[in-house]
């Protein structure tokens, strides 16, 4: 407590911090999942300063971004902590010389993963290890192992070598964003399957979530919303492309008289730093940025985060919205999108250079975000937390999302047959050794002739196309409900490097039968036409485009 108070100027620990600190001081591997603003950095910074416990020496921190490294090191130095970094800057040479010499070593050594794998750095790490001066490895923003290691940062894949080369050095991995599949990937890559896992709820109770249909590029909507709701307050607008960031920031300044600057990876280093400092100090109120902006930036008073287009993944969406309201005060997260966003992104992914499995992975991630945008019947917070493997009672949302705020009346509709057929399809195919993503299951149920379906022979299933009269959005909702009720569950299958997410019948779901009086309500805002009537229309030659939303809202019921 003395170090907490005297060095870090804090009077108490936040939830789960003490447990993580005590475990790493005891020499254990630790995986820490805390929500954004939950105080992850203290979990390794305080132990690095401690002289008690089983660990001694330098805490080596692997961090993804140079700007983040600079912020962390500068902040620690202001607290009197001996923290250094090894980057591409000229100052790094003096740090390397100090590490090679005998004498007092720094308490924390920060570097990017690319630097870790360079020969001179590995030699220094090995020297520290052999001299008993290596306290722990810390992998900050550990979700990058999965999200970036899959495609464009090979160095993240190589972090698994740390356990092999330095088997007695404890490893701590920290993130705010990891569902069970991503957690499995992180632990597998690092070789720390038996670590202590500290998992805190990902719920950010002070954030208000909203999804809106975008008109044009949405800038007029966004500017009007900012002026009416958050005039003069600090916020972030996430755009897709660098050109969009520059164009939108200029238009916000010239047309709407708002204080805005742009930020993306293509900006020259000093200009990027200046823009960031302008925003952090409050001289600039709005940053219009690509996803290159925000990781690790600790600005407590961000009152809103706007997505101008469809995010590329649910993890990205959660990470980016998590930059709002870190002071615990209310903040808004509003997503503007258009179905054309999904079409455009799908085309880009499909025509890219990635291998087939990676394309499928990215397309499924994109579909999850689209499903979230289109699902106007379930609490947004419930949907977000379910994506991270958490159950959430919508009553606890307290109208802090657009769906719960509307609170519209419901009607009832029974989709028992569809639910039972979906369970049977999954059961039949998985018994044959097939694996099904949610998207593939929807396609089989509705009888899609997509190449991915036909090439695997899934059209030969006796129930193929049994749900052709159902709209795909409704089928997606039914599958989600079956997961929620425990009839279906997610299975995470690991290959040589990564995990894939498949759906299967749960142990309880395999014994489900229809019971006349066992009814489970499922609230929906957008209603659907009657299934039987629609099927008759389709059989009369009017096509089976799928059940489309009707005017009235509905509650879908399962008798299970």
From TrEMBL:
Coiled-coil intervals: 356-383
Alphabetical list of Pfam families matching this protein: DEAD, Helicase_C, RecQ_Zn_bind, RQC
Enzyme Commission number(s) of this protein: 5.6.2.4
GO molecular function (one): 3'-5' DNA helicase activity
Record keywords, A-Z: ATP-binding, Coiled coil, DNA-binding, Helicase, Hydrolase, Isomerase, Nucleotide-binding, Nucleus
Keyword field contains Nucleus: yes
UniProt domain Helicase ATP-binding: residue ranges: 21-196
Similarity comment: family membership: Belongs to the helicase family. RecQ subfamily.
GO cellular component: chromosome; cytoplasm; nucleus
Protein name listed in UniProt: ATP-dependent DNA helicase
Cellular compartment(s): Nucleus
Main location per the UniProt record: nucleus
PANTHER family: DNA HELICASE RECQ FAMILY MEMBER, RECQ-LIKE DNA HELICASE BLM
GO BP annotations listed: DNA replication; double-strand break repair via homologous recombination
InterPro entries associated with the record: DEAD/DEAH_box_helicase_dom (IPR011545), DNA/RNA_helicase_DEAH_CS (IPR002464), DNA_helicase_ATP-dep_RecQ (IPR004589), Helicase_ATP-bd (IPR014001), Helicase_C-like (IPR001650), P-loop_NTPase (IPR027417), RecQ_Zn-bd (IPR032284), RQC_domain (IPR018982)
Domain Helicase C-terminal residues, every copy: 218-370
